[in-house]
Amino acid sequence: MYKPATIKDIALALNLSPSTVSRALRDGYEISEETKKLVVAYAQKVNYKSNPIALSLKNKRSYSIGIVIPRLANSFFSQAIAGIESIAHERGYFTIITQSHESAERERANINHLAQRSVDGLLISISSEASDFSFLKALHDDGMPMVFFDRTIDEIDTFKVTSDNRKGAYNATESLIKAGKRKIALLASASHLSITNERRSGYQKALVDYGLPFREDFIRYCNEGGNNYQEVEDAVKGLLTMADKPDAIFISADRISIGCVRALKNLSFDTKEIAIAGFANSDVVDLLQPSISYVKQKSFEMGQIAIEMLLKLIEAKYPITEFETRVLDTELHLVQ
């Protein structure tokens, strides 16, 4: 009867300890490259296959991480997930990615499903519809490790990582002011999101610092965060058909920035009369016509920090009671 090779078999054959073989197979940083190559080559030779079920029973872990994001199609989130997986893979964890599509109901269903699948922890970026976090708090109080990234909430005391949204918004608005614009509108995501409030605050501070009025009638919210193009087009049209219309628009969300450029072209507005600056992490933002100044977030780094925070919670031998919120700088890219 065929008996699959085990870590102990490989260790015996190579005169190594089982723990060294295990770390080598998981690409552990503490193992030399020479030893890793030796172990991997022999493991392939004997057709070694890891046993994730046995590993999870031994360590009381599933070695899986649940990720809850609004949309994978958003460049920011796809880049953040790449950062998450770069660390998770190295540490021997698998990821399960779910999308809320900005729906609070779907977000809750996804989180419940992941919890029932016995994931070791959750990485969450809140949907635009979410407002009741009691179920998340109950899950956290029951011992589920969770870390929030980008879109965070105050209701749960845990690790969080986000961007310096106020400064990024301030810098983008300031660039429009320095370009001679005086009537700057704001196109934003759902008003209750943490990132929306922070970016609106930065936008408003720049106006005040330069002696410009803050006008509520110059603000438009796109509750679906740019995922509904018609919503963006209607918002742009509403702004640029005002009797006293703006001469610039600051956009506080990635997909809304792309949608705004598309709307300007489809509605045949003279793009020379309107300047745009917005948050954008798209790989094609430099190719947009009309071109825009944009704030870029450190999405890949954010993903790496978020997973490191979560693994700290998961692998801690004692309960962690003190948490930090990391705030990453943004980069302003001006129109050339």
From TrEMBL:
Q: Which domain of life is it from?
A: Bacteria
Is Transmembrane helix included in the keywords of this UniProt record? no
Q: Which Gene3D superfamilies match?
A: 3.40.50.2300, lambda repressor-like DNA-binding domains (1.10.260.40)
Stretches assigned to the HTH lacI-type domain: 5-59
Q: Which UniProt keywords apply?
A: DNA-binding, Transcription, Transcription regulation
What species is given as this protein's source? Mucilaginibacter ximonensis
Q: What is the lineage of its organism?
A: Bacteria, Pseudomonadati, Bacteroidota, Sphingobacteriia, Sphingobacteriales
Which InterPro entries does this UniProt record tie to the protein?
HTH_LacI (IPR000843), Lambda_DNA-bd_dom_sf (IPR010982), Peripla_BP/Lac1_sug-bd_dom (IPR001761), Peripla_BP_I (IPR028082)
Q: What is this protein called?
A: LacI family DNA-binding transcriptional regulator
